[in-house]
Design goal:
- The protein is an alpha+beta fold.
- The chain has 12 helices and 18 strands.
- Among the domains are: 105 residues, no CATH class; 128 residues, no CATH class; 108 residues, Immunoglobulin-like, CATH 2.60.40.
- Helices cover 52% and strands 17% of the residues.
- Strands 5-6-7-8 form a 4-stranded antiparallel β-sheet. It has a 3-stranded antiparallel β-sheet with strand order 11-15-14. Strands 13-12-16 form a 3-stranded antiparallel β-sheet, with helices on one face.
- Strand 12 and strand 13 form a beta hairpin.
- The chain is rod-shaped and about 155 Å long.
């Protein structure tokens, strides 16, 4: 080998050592940089030169590549774990919020107020003429109705929170998709089939890792250097093109529904995992069903209490009464959609009693009813055809039934086998069509004597109070054969079980994510001790190479002096 060849060996050693020192220094500088993947230097000997007698002499070292240390399979598992943890976090967060709204085991929970309400009617049954107990019953009804309304409003507020959070999250997701598409374009342009653009790839991985927190994604790496991103089986990023995501909100029949779509073509995205998947799941599987079950409970409570109360009598009758439920069309049959009554009207009859306040003389009329054949106009005509001169029926301004007694007369009701009194809101305890509107009748609050406790117009009777007191444990068809207490208790128990399960799932998901993060750090993280050792090794290599070049230089100078 010539002296010039020896100089080339030294030059390659110096170049490789400088590059290796720079890589080690860059690793150490980015030891705390989030998303940074450790770089490693890969060296290889240059092919040897043949010298007599047929011996190979090395020609130095070459830098093959500076590689980003990454395990793609491990990275994919980590992103899945991030998605699962964020999804579990959303589950735990909103299930706990619902549990807090219900507030069971507190002094103001719905179970306690329901027990107090039915218990007050039980006390009234013992002393049906006691006005003080009547006031307690009314106040318990007000408290129960108020609590139901509060729970419904807080449920609705929680759903609005989910919808708002969905909007914000979709906006952030789109920003990340834009960033991934932009980085794909820059990576493809920069690399051009050559070595990796490590810094750009780190930035893209960091964006994709954050994206995984919002939705469960699949990443497909292309030979060009681009990375396609799919949600489910639907691509949302193809190379440098972001197909985008949008939140579609639709309203139908007073109900609002949301869905996630691809902005480019409207394809529905079945998002699983991540914050978006958790929010969509909690909206459809937790909050909406909770609202629906509360509505079912409230309607059953209103109807059953009102049906019993509408057939009872208080300590005095009414001079006039207006139904709290009007119809949309007075000519439509009572059970038709055009009538829009909140409760079904069966086939049967009810009795109206007109009592002379001075003599006590009472006239009784039985009014036949068929909810599938009669309209409100028909009911008014039937009442006016049967009722004596002391009273009259008419249709009010709200298209509701209005009954009026002449001076010196009072109205009472009994024996309603059709349910029409409760459906029209005549002589009822509650008003309202939903959990949001349930309330105690104003006229009962103002005149406790109108609170029905008796039945059959018998002095001291407690039949109605007993009937209402027993509703808490009565099996109801509207609730699938369960009582009001059982229906609410089942909802509370189910939520408690799901919340506990979500808390456990969150803890498990966090452990998995932390374990995978530790494994990634073992592969891609920077160890300052290891880099310090590498730095020392390459420093020694550089010093040796420099000394080697110096020796060769001295040899050349000696040869040149001999020539002179």
């Amino acid at each position: 080998m010539s002296l010039n060849g020896a100089l080339q060996v030294g030059r390659t050693a110096l170049t490789a050592s400088q590059a290796a020192i720079q890589v080690a220094g860059n690793n150490m500088a980015n030891a705390a940089t989030e998303g940074f993947h450790r770089r490693s230097v890969h060296l290889a000997p240059i092919r040897g030169e043949v010298v007599p007698p047929n011996a190979f002499i090395g020609q130095g070292v070459q830098l093959m590549t500076v590689r980003r240390e990454i395990d793609l399979a491990l990275q994919a598992r980590f992103r899945g774990a991030v998605s699962q943890e964020q999804s579990s976090l959303i589950d735990q967060r909103f299930l706990s919020s619902l549990e807090a709204i219900q507030g069971e085991l507190t002094e103001n929970d719905l179970s306690s107020l329901m027990s107090a309400f039915f218990g007050a009617f039980s006390e009234l049954a013992n002393s049906p003429d006691d006005n003080a107990i009547r006031s307690v019953v009314i106040q318990q009804g007000v408290s129960l109705a108020g609590r139901i309304g509060d729970v419904q409003r807080q449920y609705s507020d929680l759903r609005r929170e989910v919808d708002q959070r969905l909007g914000v999250t979709v906006e952030r997701t789109n920003a990340l998709l834009d960033e991934v598409a932009r980085l794909n374009r820059e990576i493809v342009t920069t690399e051009s089939g050559q070595s990796e653009a490590s810094a750009l790839r780190d930035q893209r991985d960091r964006a994709i890792d954050e994206l995984a927190a919002y939705a469960e994604i699949t990443v497909i790496n292309q030979a060009s250097g681009a990375a396609d991103v799919l949600i489910g089986s639907v691509p949302v990023v193809l190379g440098s093109v972001n197909r985008g995501m949008l939140l579609r909100v639709t309203s139908e029949g007073g109900q609002t529904s949301v869905s996630l779509r691809v902005a480019a073509d409207g394809t529905t995205l079945a998002v699983r995992g991540g914050e978006l998947g958790g929010l969509m799941r909690q909206r459809s599987e937790t909050i909406d069903p909770a609202i629906d079950r509360l509505e079912t409970f409230s309607l059953a409570l209103i109807h059953e209490v009102n049906r019993a109360h509408s057939q009872g009598q208080g300590t005095r009758g009414m001079t006039s009464v207006a139904g709290t439920y009007g119809v949309n069309d007075t000519t439509a049959t009572l059970n038709a959609a055009g009538a829009n009554l909140p409760f079904h009207v069966g086939h049967g009859s009810f009795r109206i009693h007109v009592t002379h306040t001075e003599t006590g003389a009472r006239s009784t009329m039985e009014i036949p009813v068929s909810g599938n054949a009669q309209s409100l106009d028909d009911i008014v005509q039937s009442i006016n055809a049967a009722i004596p001169a002391g009273a009259a029926a008419s249709i009010g301004t709200d298209r509701n039934l209005v009954l009026t007694a002449s001076a010196g007369f009072e109205l009472t009701f009994s024996d309603d086998t059709s349910g029409v009194l409760a459906a029209l809101g005549i002589n009822t305890f509650f008003t309202g069509r939903s959990a949001a509107t349930i309330a105690v009748q104003d006229r009962i609050i103002e005149s406790p004597g109108l609170l029905a406790a008796g039945a059959g117009h018998l002095p001291g009777s407690n039949g109605t109070a007993l009937a209402i007191a027993g509703l808490g444990e009565k099996a109801l068809d509207a609730l699938g054969g369960r009582s009001l207490r059982e229906h609410w208790r089942d909802q509370v128990s189910d939520l408690a079980v799901r919340t506990a399960r979500a808390t456990t799932a969150l803890a498990s998901a966090a452990v998995v994510r932390e374990s995978l993060h530790a494994q990634i750090q073992a592969v891609s993280g920077v160890s300052l001790d290891e880099e310090a050792m590498n730095l020392l090794t390459f420093q020694r290599q550089f010093q040796a190479a420099a000394r080697f070049v110096s020796v060769i230089d001295e040899s050349i100078q000696t040869l040149l002096s001999l020539v002179r």
